[in-house]
Amino acid sequence: MSLFPQDIISTAEAIIRDFTAAGLMISTAESCTGGLIAGALTEISGSSAVVDRGFVTYTNGAKIEMLGVQAETLLRFGAVSEETARQMVHGALFRSRAEIAVAVTGIAGPGGGSAEKPVGLVHLAAKSRAGALIHRKMHYGDIGRSEVRLATVRTALEMVRSLLAA
Question: Residue 2: pLDDT above 90?
């Protein structure tokens, strides 16, 4: 029995299989998911050959210290922004041995949202060392904290798969 729903496990299995076959590694930088993306990947046997490291950077200070996110970016755009997600994924990629990284930052709720940045808003970024970058701005809505987090994991894993296929 897994901690994750079967669709997430199936996607994680495909990532582990494909990354293993290609000899690639992945790193994660997570805020609102608190390590769930890395958790889904490491739920799969053999993931130690693929998962280099995961950064859980829940606070702005952690984003700055661990990933090199610029304080000015956080002040100007906020933690939940495309700019922050892009800097997070860049930091995860270049502070690891991974060829591909994924980063997420968002508002899982139930509180913390605003008119400008409502509960369920998540910015995701995936990047390869070759320079390919994908950003997605998701509006999951106020569907519940766990559901926002799981939806974010699903989207992040799909982004990793599409980046690998590119």
Answer: no
